[in-house]
Amino acid sequence: MTRxxxxxxxxxxxxxxxxxxxxxxxxxxxxxxxxxxxxxxTINGKGVLNxxxxxxxxxxxxxxGVPTHFIRRLNxxxxxxxxxxxxxxxxxxxxxxxxxxTKRLGIEEGTQLPRTIIEYYYKDDALGDPLVADEHIxxxxxxxxxxxxxxxxxAIRVNDFMCGxxxxxxxRLVDFKLEFGxxxxxxxxxxxxxxxxxxxxxxxxxxxxxxxxxxxxFRQDLGGEVEAYQEIARRLGLMPDGENMILDLESHRKNRxx
Length: 258
Hints:
The protein is of the alpha+beta class. It has a single domain (about 5-225), classed as 2-Layer Sandwich (D-amino Acid Aminotransferase, Chain A, domain 1), CATH 3.30.470.20. The chain contains 7 helices and 14 strands. The chain has helices spanning about 45-65, 100-105, 135-140, 145-165, 215-220, 225-235, 250-255; strands at about 5-10, 15, 25-30, 30-35, 40, 70-75, 80, 85, 90-95, 110-120, 130, 170-185, 190-195, 200-205. Strands 8, 9, 10, 11, 12, 13 and 14 form a 7-stranded antiparallel beta sheet that branches. It has a 5-stranded antiparallel beta sheet with strand order 1-2-3-7-6. Strands 4-5 form a two-stranded antiparallel ribbon. β2 and β3 (about 25-30) form a beta hairpin. The longest helix is centred in the middle third of the chain and has 23 residues, at about 145-165. The relative contact order is 0.16. Belongs to the SAICAR synthetase family.
């Protein structure tokens, strides 16, 4: 078997060289981190669930005209994606007060915001991904003004779509993180949605109970992380009711052989 060339390894994913020029293979890990990797752990099967959930959401976004890096899912943990130059800005879209916003501004968690807020964070682990303004982005050339307009427009469009998608399955979309990249065609580039959309980067609360169904269960030591991720997959129609998704192929093969 030919060993694939690893391009990059992050906290939750590994990128490998793709089968064709301009493509990569994105591998979803079970590793879990919080507070800028100060807290580390493993959520068994998280990579499998995030792969399926992100595939589903990116596919649906594609149908409404949002350009993304997603091409197709390859297997339980891998996707074929377009290679992009990542814009070094994390885009956080907030509909409800939670997380760092509540600490910074002293707002009670769960407060419905009068309007959606878009925040930008400079992607730098050593600096703790600091909050930045449009002026910083323009000053340091991290993205052009035209690119930032495209990013903001897409972020709002994604938010509108996802609010409806999750409300339809009884889930409140509190906030979420997006990443964007430049997709190059010769000398011309355009901004497309990259990375993933999953319970790792979204705050998702049950509308009826307020139960948290996302990575906050890991951050806050609430337990039940796998069950929460599975519940999101079930409600999205990715797991039949009463059945568990195969999260570990080796264990599944052994059990099947018994």
